[in-house]
Amino acid sequence: MAECKKEHGECGKGCFVDSVIHVDVKDYYGKTLKKTSDLKSNACLAPSQPIPAFILKALKKIHPEVTAKYYGCGLVVPECLEGCRLLDLGSGSGRDCYMLSQLVGEKGHVTGIDMTEDQLEVARKYVDHHTQEFGYEKPNVDFVQGYIEALKEAGLKENSFDIIISNCVVNLSPDKRKVLSDAYRVLKDGGELYFSDVYSSSKLSDEIKNHKVLWGECLGGALWWEDLVRLAQEVGFSPPRLVTANVVTVDNMELEAVLGDYKFVSATYRLFKIPKISNKGSLVIYNGNITGFEESLEFDSQYTFKVDEVVEVDGEVASILSHSRFAEEFTFQPPGLPAGCSVKKPKVGTVNPFELVLQLGSATVSSATGGCCGAE
Fold first, then answer.
1. Which terms does the record give in the GO molecular function aspect (predicted)?
2. Segment 351-368, tens digit of pLDDT
């Protein structure tokens, strides 16, 4: 069963043929689910964790109907957003878009893309409401109907976004490689894909992949975390940096019986579009100018940068910091300091979210945001 949605009125641009999975997911999120409490597991729900005050303030300004239709498995708010052009993959009812539209500011812009008409109807309904609520002269958010595997067909241009986010949506796509490659294409050089999703402890069986409810609940389409690491680098991204990880407990006996011994986590990764990584490490000093991170910046599960503290970073992180929107937030020095100077060594890092969960005892690394992109 397939249908062709012609988003722009002519095939060849915006024409994408639904797979059976696309049809099932649209039905699940457009018709079956009416509110968050309709979910049959907790995989698509954000884990309980402290939320910075300024993000809570932004969330409180969002219309209740938009919030009621929100489904997500993490708090997807990268740092340094002011003035940025941002894309939300699978924006749903628009909750994250409206939150982030406040954080990028009136000179920034947020685009949400979603394939589900019912969700987009809710999101678009409140554009004018939120423009007035935020005190903006004109909207800085728009919503596009399309597929996260077909950003070009949806009219999104190459090298046009500073940051892409996604909140528990990539798992719903039947073609993860295409999602990542299209995201890479529309990101500017130095741009970042910062996203939260559900990952499995091993490759899933066909029985689970073909289970409609499990797919709709963000479990049947979950990637084995090792496949994410491989696919990300194959399409051109830097090696994934693991930010957070939390155990997913299904809490549904019927679904647990089908899942058997498979384990799941929700995890947030950051992937960067940067030049070839240098083998040379560096000493970096964080200047503390990012709003919300005036004293320290928790970049990922391995690196925390305190103001004026000299930190030794490897070639991978040095390349990311120096070629991204974070470049002006750090002072870079070659390895080697005069005797007596203190240098902080990083923790041992991991990209395995199941390992991180064990290390942290299910604790998480929080994230907030501040201004870095600048006006265009």
1. arsenite methyltransferase activity
2. 999 999 999 874 443 343
